[in-house]
Amino acid sequence: MEAFDSIFPRCIARLEENLPSYLYYHNVAHTLHVLNKSIVFAHQQDVLPAELEVLKLAALYHDTGFMVQRFEHEQISCELARRDLKELGYETNVIDSICGIIMATKIPQQPQSNLEKILADADLEYLGTTDYDMRSECLFKEMKHFDTSIKMNDWIKFQIDFLEKHSFHTEFCINVLEPIKQLNLNKLKEKAISKYI
């Protein structure tokens, strides 16, 4: 069984080679960011080393499905992880856990285990940060590739609805990021109002 450190460079190289250039949000930088935040959140909760290895692999693979297609990409990410990790000697139960964690990022998020909650929060961590505007702009640009008819007004409404329905799951994100998310939501509502004045 190969360790994460030997799997990581090969997976990242494959993402760099195969992710479409129009993925301005779901790119390699996003995967690296989610991986980093997963590790940070895990250390805050004293996650055991064996669990951390599983979490890191899930974070690494969570958006690999975008190499194939956008729709149901989480399921494809699981299929890619399952294929690769089986070849590398990982036990079926470990692979199942990794796939469960990956699927916890599917919208609407419904994570159950602690590791699922960590990855779900790491994936949408930007909602509660001061980087929100920049990251959402990248996502808007990406979405316009798939639907050129989408307008900024529509995007603002979509974001408001998304943030209102979203919930963080880990204690840190609930306590620290949720208040910032609410500030971002209020700014979006102000933008929406200004569009009609």
UniProtKB/TrEMBL annotation:
Protein name according to UniProt: HD/PDEase domain-containing protein
Stored InterPro entries: HD/PDEase_dom, HD_domain
Matches recorded under CDD domains: HDc (cd00077)
Signal peptide: none
Location of the HD/PDEase domain: 23-137
Pfam families, A to Z: HD
